[in-house]
Amino acid sequence: MGSVVKRMIAVSAGLILLAAAVCIFCRGTRSYTQWEQEHLGVPDVVSSRTDGDECMLIVVANADSIEDEQAFAEETVRKYEENEFYTTRFSRDHKSLPKQVYMSVYLRKSDIGQKPSVFSIMYDTENRKIRIIQ
Question: Which residues face 133 on adjacent strands?
């Protein structure tokens, strides 16, 4: 009987180690995915508010810096129009879309409320004009 108990203890210990390894792997994968998302430089909306004909968005660049503000603004507006943001999807079942979209841009999500926005984007949806506001 002693050898059976020893085997059961060994198997239990092995299963515990295996479960711990799986937990560590999953946590590491999640941490890497979050780190990767925050460093890819892909714009994402983290907050939106619509008031009548105006929509206000908080956008994060997920980057250390923005080299070309105009290119970033054009990419962000394209993602808005095509409803391609990772975190936020906009309901398009309304009869009318906002006429003006204001986007406050931050480098990282952790900067919101801690630092001023890097710049803002004003998008006139009727005329399809993009303006960067410093």
Answer: 120
The single residue listed with the structure tokens 């990767």 is 36
Residues 6+ apart with CB under 8 A from 106: 58, 59, 60, 61, 112, 115, 117, 118
Give the Cα separation of 62 and 107 in Å (integer).
6
Residue with tokens 């198997």: 11
Whether 121 and 74 map to the same domain: the answer is yes
Based on the domain organization, do 3 and 66 belong to the same domain?
Answer: no
Q: Could you tell me if 34 and 48 lie in one domain? A: no
| Model pLDDT for residues 81-134, shown as the tens digit of each residue | 888 888 877 776 666 778 999 999 999 999 999 999 999 999 999 999 999 998
Q: Which domain holds residue 9?
A: 1-39
Instruction: Using CB atoms within 10 Å of the CB of residue 61, give its burial: 0 to 12 exposed, 13 to 18 middle, 19+ buried.
Output: buried
How far the first Cα of the chain sits from its last, in Å, is 78
